[in-house]
Write a structure and sequence with these properties.
three-stranded antiparallel β-sheet, alpha+beta, globular, 8 strands, 3 helices
Length: 136
Amino acid sequence: MPPIEILSGCNDLKIKLPITTPTGKARVKCRSCKYSFGQPHKVKKCPITEDCYIEWQISYYTYDEKRGLAYVSYKIDNKERYAYELTEILYKGIKVWNTNDSKETLEDLETLLEYIKNVKCYFNEELQKNITREKI
């Protein structure tokens, strides 16, 4: 599977997920209504629509210090765990975003959460322009 990339620019954070590999950890699914489970969607053959979403089979931690973030560790059931995948992306994303102080970042995250809760359409025309497909 191609690696997940985290890119940061002036005022943005971009995360590249390989969504065209059927056996990968991230894949596109399409559902008939928002309460149903989706069916696999072939993005190489069909465009992504409003009915699509990305399913990410993801790990939050690993026991292997070399694979995880050694500087972000915690204990569960008296065993040392290391941040991995989603936790790593969130940690690095917040670190990139946090240029001044953590209180400001927390307020930004709360504002972002409220914005996301109010979004009605995830794939509007403007967002559709920013979706890129790269051959792997």
